[in-house]
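Hi V.,

You were right to ask for the full record rather than a summary. Here it is.
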Amino acid sequence: MLHDVVSAIYQGGYLIELEFDDGRRGTVDFAKYHERGGVFERFRDLEFFRNFKINKELGVLTWGDEIDIAPETLYADATGSPLPAWMNPDTSRGSRTRSK
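Predicted structure:
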């Protein structure tokens, strides 16, 4: 089941406390994202990072019109829940082993 982000509170640094539509909440450390490069390099600018919003229509956390992070990923990070099986390449295609 997918859960929308309904509340987001900046906690300092790269921490944002999130609440989801099922009432569960938790804090996500976004520092790992700016290390990935690409569009996430924008997170190195803390003022940019702090200027997030919730797209209520989609239930996602966004930064401008450029960056959003899937609510499934945020839910897993904030609550310690596993990602949905369809997001795991090993389970979505079945287990395959390659012999040498």
